[in-house]
Amino acid sequence: MLAPRSLRKAAVPPSLLSDPSPGSLQPTRLAVHVNAAGSSCSAYLASGCRVYKIEIAMEGEMLSKGKESLLIPINAEVISSSVVDRCPHRSEIQSVVLAEGEGDGCLILGTVDSYGHLIVSRLDTVADGPPIQYHLVIVVSEKEVGLGYVAVARELCKCIDIYDQDIHVRSLRTLWYPSSFSFAQCMPQVNESGSMLAIAEGSQLSIWDLRTSNNGGCIHRISGPIGGIIYSLCSSPSGPIAVGGTDRTVTIYDPRRWSALSRWVGCSKYEITGLSFSSVDESFIYVQGVDYEITCGLWKGNERAFSFRGDSNWLGFSKCANTDVVAGWCESGSVFVADVRQDCLSVIGPTLLQF
Fold it and tell me: How many domains are there within the chain?
């Protein structure tokens, strides 16, 4: 069982960023990273042609709850704020991705603008490394893949390009416009990690094998809601794949049979534009709606655990790779950061006494 440890609200300094640019429907302009000690959280925000970084204090347990398990935020201190000078874009940045690189204290930051120019930079906490620039559209970096692949979605071209760093490997032609995709982290059909790609295109979920050329690489298709659109997709390390969109329902698919394991109907008040499995307990999932609410719940039992709301619509939604630190960035300039841990009482279980 998951239990929230704290919910903090930090304001972006007006001197750093006063009026954020609007962005797109799917809020992907936020990336967060927690330091090794867990005392602070770094939030990377993209607005206009620049990327901004704020350091938020995370020490101590501060939690207040309202009705229906709604978390009430407590104001947090902004330790430092700065402009990231590694992203010289010429148009509005649409997406930000953050991943851990090789070595301690090394982060890989990828940003893409509306012209389709992508800049990948290395952010070292000890030494500064030279930025590396590619001209792609969207980058999704999976450090668990091991094959070094980068997937690039070209929505209007109905195409997913696969790159090995800056070398083009192959292209996957989709039937509909791709809105979200993810490398499947665990597939029972293959032994090689990172060779399977799950793509949300229109109302369908398609599975692609990067090692085969039969049928263009597509090995399976699953039809979703009739007349609906899948906006978000994510995969868990154990295999299940979650999708959500205009039907306001989270559907979990089993990769062994390609059938629905569970459907959490009505888990969001509006369209679902963000999903992420919990790193602490994979039976829980975080759901981000298009409005200003993020919900955590048990997808097997369709049970809501807790939720928190921003003070305006989301501009960004992100979860740390290996920890359950979930953040949302609002139009007002506020950043909400929730720190979630395993409930110790649920792990220990009830205590029995006999005489």
Answer: 1
DSSP string covering 30-50, please? EEEEE-TTSSEEEEEEEETTE
Task: Return the half-sphere exposure (C-beta side, CA atoms, 13 A cut-off) of residue 243.
Answer: 31
Instruction: Enumerate residues 6+ apart whose C-beta is below 8 A from 271.
Output: 231, 245, 246, 248, 289, 290
Residues 6+ positions from 140 with CB-CB distance below 8 Å: 97, 150, 151, 181, 182, 183
What's the alpha-carbon Rg for the chain, to the nearest Å? Answer: 20
The model's pTM: 0.86
**Per-residue DSSP letter, 344:** H
Q: Residue 345: helix, strand or coil by DSSP?
A: helix
- Domain extent at residue 165: 9-16+23-344
Q: Residues 97-137: pLDDT tens digits?
A: 887 776 666 788 888 787 767 777 887 655 444 444 433 33
Query: By C-alpha distance, which of 173, 180, 169, 168 is closest to 134?
Result: 168
d(CA 289, CA 10): 21
The CATH number assigned to the domain holding 216 equals 2.130.10.10
